Amino acid sequence: MTEKAPGAPSHTALPKLPADFRAFTGLPNYDFWLFDSRTVVKFSFDDEENMLGVEIIEVPATVLAACQTRDAAWHYAVPTIDFQTQLLSTV
């Protein structure tokens, strides 16, 4: 079982993005994690959404772009409860 770090938000407390958000935002078409605004971990997936691997990036210009993407994505994010309600209503 994985435990979260003390004080870290639960994944259910984090806002969610709709799957098609990239189509109308101009944000990059890949998934990544941003650590301490210094390191980007970019995920690679195949056409069936199986994870192929990750790339760890610390190039300042790339990290800056990821920070800007994160900030833009927050604008489109919805609270988890709203996301879950929308998802359940389509099933």
Describe what this molecule looks like in 3D.
- With 91 residues, this protein is of the alpha+beta class.
- The protein has a domain at 21-81.
- Helices cover 35% and strands 20% of the residues.
- The chain is built from three helices and three strands.
- The chain has helices spanning 21-25, 60-76, 80-89; strands at 32-35, 39-45, 51-57.
- It has a three-stranded antiparallel β-sheet with strand order 1-2-3, with helices on one face.
- Strand 2 (39-45) and strand 3 (51-57) form a beta hairpin.
- The longest helix has 17 residues, at 60-76.
- The protein is globular.
- The two termini are 29 Å apart.
- Mean pLDDT is 76; it is low at 1-6 and 8-12.
Describe the biggest sheet? Answer: 3 strands, antiparallel
Calculate Rg over CA atoms.
15 Å
* Helix/strand order, N-terminal first: HEEEHH
Low-pLDDT ranges: 1-6, 8-12
Spatial ordering of strands, largest sheet: 1-2-3
Record field, number of beta strands? 3
Mean pLDDT: 76
Helix share bin: 25-40%
The count of helical stretches stands at 3
Taken from the alpha-carbon principal axes, the silhouette is globular
Oligomeric state as shown: single chain
Structural class of the helix and strand makeup? alpha+beta
Strand-residue proportion: 15-25%
Spatial gap, N to C terminus: 29 Å
Question: Quick gist of this model?
Answer:
With 91 residues, this protein is of the alpha+beta class.
List keywords for this structure.
single chain; 91 residues; alpha+beta; three-stranded antiparallel sheet; 20% strand
